[in-house]
Amino acid sequence: MRVLDEHCVRCHNPDGLGLGDFTDPQQVADFAELIVASVESDRMPPPVSAPTCRDYVGSASLVLDEGERATLREWTEAGGQAGDALEEGGVSTELSEPDLELLIPAPYTPTYPDPDDAGNEYRCFVLDPGHDEDFFVTALAPIVDQQSMLHHAVLSTASRDTLAPDQLEPSGFDCMGGMGIDPTGGTLVAWAPGMLPVELPDEHGIRVPSDRVLILQIHYFASPGSEGLADRSGYAFRTASTVRTEVQMSQLGVTDFEIPAGAESFTAGGEYSPRTEVEVLGIFPHMHRLGTAFDASVAHADDTEDCLVSGEYSFDNQLTYQFVEPVRVQPDDTLSFSCTWNNSTSNPELDTAPVATTFGERTDEEMCFFFMLTKQIGEEPDGPDVDALDPSALEPGVVHIQVTTEVGGMLVSDDCVGTLEVSTDDPDVLATGACAFEGMFTMLLGTDPQPVTVLGDESGGDVLLQVQESVLEGRWNGSTDGAAVLGSWVAEDTLEIGAAVMVQHAGAFHVER
Asked: What is the pLDDT of residue 120?
């Protein structure tokens, strides 16, 4: 039947997540009443972002209109007989005409070795594209082998020179808590169940430098019937040697949330602004089993607003929404996003008693990320505005470090606020102390305060700020007056914290003498 081919077969097939094989006319006839009941109750098709928010590629095949619902009702009443099939049915989860396919080097059987993360295993595999020159990915889609136990598959790049010999083994390496690789590598794509191929507009591509390999991170989870299965998933690509427009994958999200036990509707989110003018080409919202809804929009400086994505969420039907018309975002605009979860017994995805749930990588923890395909339009501005930092406004003995990560033209900021004490043992040390990050980098650092040392001279001038093992050479716009040490800076080098590299950072400190 044409409506089923258009809307249902991508999941209801021999290898799909859905119940039954809707390519079999007899099974379709047997399921006819159940199909219509599922549609009438809005359980099917699974929820997606509303095209009325912003239209996206494939929306006509992912949302049933009233005419198609009426067709299904009439079909059931007429006996549920087979009708004419589409020559090409609906949307496909496979990439057409790839020119490059890379699979896990050897079949891998998850062992779930960590008892503290029972039933979860994060495994990374090196996929070498074998290119001697830079190339561009213009379209890509996963080749999913054992779909029943794949929670997600994230594809990033890493420098060959940073990989240890054991990471190059065909069996891969453990990467729970981060990929354990060169953190400057960019993310190409993130896949989760239900995802359609990502196909960029003509002459657009994501650069893969010649000195980089691809790192495939797979989150395996122990679903019923998956014990002992060996997986050999991978990715299919269409590539080009040159493109007109370079595209980046930006990862925005929030990590400092706690969903109370029993909460039927709990929402958390964030706001970000670009450092330069960008176009948003598409968005992939990602949560785990408690997720029920997502929303993202842009508030423009001229008081207009663009909806990006908005809808109910299904873990088994996650999509990268590739916009028919991209959205331009200016530095004075604000991009807002939010995630909503149901952590109560009314959530059918929750098969245990509700407990307070925080950010984490396991399936029984939660996430709120929006992976955005962006292209930069404007020129890159200078570093953070140090004039916006007012060290004199700080309480005595306080350090305030603002760290920002730029991805695809988007600026993600976190603050590290803590205390400093005057050092008298070393004439070159103005103060020592610690500060704790809150927000995105908590995921990388945990909640422990990070050591901070302010190196310099009481006469003022340049100052060095040391955080963990990184020493930051910056311009110190500060003073000492015998009673207090005041300073602020814009760093001129790279700050490495945990598994992240921040290329822009600024801060202020105030220490009583």
From this structure: 85
